Amino acid sequence: MPIAQVDKIWMDGELVDWQDATIHVLSHAVHYGSGVFEGIRAYDTARGPAVWQLDEHLKRLFRSAKLYHLEVPFSREALTQATKDVIAANGLEACYVRPLLLRGYGEMGVNPLDAPVNVVIAVWPWGAYLGEDALDHGVRIKVSSWRRNSQNSLPAAAKATGQYINSVLAKVESLKAGYDEAIMLNEAGMVTDGSGENVFIVRDHVLTTPPIAAGCLDGITRGSVIALARDLGYEVQEENLVRTDLYNADECFFTGTAAEITPIREVDDRVVGEGHRGPVTKELQGAFFAATKGENDRYLHWLTFVND
Ligand code: PPE
């Protein structure tokens, strides 16, 4: 999907023109994948643009940085303000937000510790991640032949740029085989997550999602959906799933910042449930989009209003 370009990007403490937000080809992160990043969305609300779960995302960014001994030259408060500033500077009502901490230019060799750190917050309008139809009609997915990176090779606790080359293998395999997305299993054969989404199943009105220990990302949307579902009266459990649990579910869906709540209608050519978005998925989408748009007072604390 081509990027919808806007005017400004926040880089190393200032707003720069989009085309000037560049780094050198010999930057450490380009060679060794030594960056950490976040994906966040801002939604259009009656009080102007508001960033969904900004605190949680920035906390995860700092946890990712800690794992890789990357010292962040800005505080969480400064990055909160920078996020608001870059959305306001571009006059956006709703957008995707991509904070990125990367090891920059000046040192070569695997050791990252002496390389400078660059900090970027980019924003741009980003529509439905898995296609315009996907939110209503669902996607067809494939269990990948590629295993998810294990906890003691590339820990799922961090959102590091380098680990996404694992997601790239799975994503491309699924696309070339004619599917919309992939799900990866861990080395023990348990379900982890998609190339860029967590996964849930619904069976007999109970929601199940794999535990973080299975090797999936500790998704912020996953956390929001668990809370929303419990508030709606559903039982939600974090339990290991095998691939056939996906086939035999009443409903199945992805969660993610980019993917939001996307129904899964087929897994490995097996129709899931009725083969279209199920009622629980639809109810959760309704609750999620109402909350993100600031229409439910109960969840206002999950929004950071850009104009406040
Ligand atoms: N698992 C993976 C592997 C993942 O990349 C994401 C986010 C999630 C689960 C869901 O996490 P959360 O966004 O916190 O609910 N993927 C981001 C990047 C997507 C991309 O293509 O780039 C995202 O959704 O922003």
Describe the secondary structure blueprint for this structure.
Blueprint (H helix, E strand, L loop, with lengths): L7 E4 L2 E4 L10 H5 L2 E3 L2 E6 L2 E5 L1 H14 L8 H14 L5 E9 L13 E8 L9 H4 L1 E5 L20 H13 L4 E5 L5 E4 L3 E6 L2 E4 L10 H12 L3 E4 L4 H5 L3 E6 L3 E8 L2 E2 L7 H14 L10 E3 L3
Parallel strand pairs: 8-9, 8-15, 12-13
Antiparallel strand pairs: 1-2, 1-7, 3-6, 4-5, 4-6, 5-17, 6-7, 9-10, 11-12, 11-14, 14-15, 15-16
The structure holds ligand PPE.
- The structural class is alpha+beta
Distance between the termini: 32 Å
Mean pLDDT: 97
- Total DSSP E strands: 17
Q: Report the major sheet.
A: 9 strands, mixed
Overall helicity: 25-40%
- Secondary-structure element sequence? EEHEEEHHEEHEHEEEEHEHEEEHE
**Low-pLDDT stretches:** none
Bound molecules: ligand PPE
Spatial extent as radius of gyration: 19 Å
Strand content bin: 25-35%
* Number of contiguous helices: 8
Q: What is the compact description of this entry?
A:
By secondary structure, the chain is of the alpha+beta class. Helix content is 26%, strand content 28%.
Overview features:
alpha+beta; eight-stranded antiparallel beta sheet; 28% strand; globular; binds ligand PPE
Give structural notes.
This protein is an alpha+beta fold. Helix content is 26%, strand content 28%. The protein is built from eight helices and 17 strands. It has helices at 28-32, 54-67, 76-89, 134-137, 164-176, 220-231, 243-247, 279-292; strands spanning 8-11, 14-17, 35-37, 40-45, 48-52, 95-103, 117-124, 139-143, 181-185, 191-194, 198-203, 206-209, 235-238, 251-256, 260-267, 270-271, 303-305. The strands form two sheets. Strands 8, 9, 10, 11, 12, 13, 14, 15 and 16 form a nine-stranded mixed sheet that branches. Strand 12 (206-209), helix 6 and strand 13 form a beta-alpha-beta unit. The chain is globular, with a radius of gyration of 19 Å. The two termini are 32 Å apart. Ligand PPE is lined by residues 39, 167, 193, 196-198, 216-217, 219-222, 255-259. Residues 39, 167, 193, 196-198, 216-217, 219-222, 255-259 line the site of ligand PPE.
